């Protein structure tokens, strides 16, 4: 409760007592949920800055402590996320945590190897054209098991078809700097980075909806890599 009192900026009138006015303002400003008007005031640049700032808070151990149930109630009648992130299913890359975002802030599409296919692209078209998100981020990561599986040509049930989506990135990296194997860390990282670039390119090539929005400056596409050893996310220049 102490944190809330400090954030709301009004002092308790007596020990253990918070006025109703103060309680209504108990959430820090960063916990204000995204409404349609707040979302429409965002641009690609402010959306990217918002993710960068959230990530800086995460790295500094200064994530914002919000009342998540209050955010659930505040978003119950609609959502207006400012960005959409394509990420791997890897448990070490929890998107909302590494960008310090909460309920209703970002759409997240997760699939092993963070590639894009018709279903993911359709989801991104919904997130941007229908729901109004201003920025698409394709987020890859180091030590990706799916990338390693694609490199080693792993075959297992439906996973074989999943990993096939990463094969173009494996093929595209010609300078392996050693064996073309998952044991070659430099090659694994190079393929993961190429996989992210290819995904971003595919979005524009395969989606008339997304490419038109990019051309009109209504949305932007960014790529980034997450280092699972440090927690650090590095953004590349916008695609
Ligand atoms: Zn992965």
Annotated CATH architecture of the largest domain: 3-Layer(aba) Sandwich
Stated plainly, the CATH topology of the largest domain is called Beta-carbonic Anhydrase, Chain A
What overall form do the CA principal axes indicate? globular
Ligands present: zinc ion
Based on secondary structure, the structural category is alpha/beta
Low-confidence stretches: 1-24
Using DSSP, what is the number of strands? 5
Distance separating the two termini: 44 Å
For the largest beta-sheet, the strand count, sense and barrel status come to: 5 strands, mixed
DSSP helical segment count:
12
Classified in CATH, the superfamily of the largest domain is: Carbonic anhydrase
Mean pLDDT: 90
* Radius of gyration, in angstroms, nearest whole number: 20 Å
- CATH class term of the largest domain: Alpha Beta
């Amino acid at each position: 409760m102490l944190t809330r009192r400090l954030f709301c900026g009004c002092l308790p009138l007596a020990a253990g007592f918070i006025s109703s006015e103060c309680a209504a303002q108990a959430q820090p400003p960063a916990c204000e949920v995204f409404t349609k008007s707040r979302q429409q005031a965002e641009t690609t640049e402010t959306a990217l800055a918002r993710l960068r700032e959230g990530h800086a808070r995460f790295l500094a151990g200064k994530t914002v402590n919000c009342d998540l149930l209050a955010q659930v109630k505040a978003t119950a009648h609609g959502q207006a996320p400012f960005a959409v992130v394509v990420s791997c299913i890897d448990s070490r890359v929890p998107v909302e945590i590494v960008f310090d975002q909460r309920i209703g802030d970002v759409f997240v599409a997760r699939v092993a190897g963070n590639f894009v296919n018709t279903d993911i692209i359709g989801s991104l078209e919904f997130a941007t054209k229908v729901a109004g998100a201003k920025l698409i981020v394709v987020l890859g990561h180091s030590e990706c098991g799916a990338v390693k599986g694609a490199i080693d040509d792993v075959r297992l049930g439906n996973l074989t078809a999943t990993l096939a989506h990463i094969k173009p990135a494996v093929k595209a990296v010609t300078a392996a700097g050693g064996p073309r194997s998952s044991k070659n860390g430099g090659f694994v990282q190079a393929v993961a980075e190429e996989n992210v670039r290819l995904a971003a390119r595919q979005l524009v090539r395969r989606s008339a909806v997304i490419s038109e929005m990019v051309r009109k400056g209504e949305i932007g596409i960014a790529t980034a890599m997450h280092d699972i050893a440090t927690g650090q996310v590095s953004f590349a220049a916008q695609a």
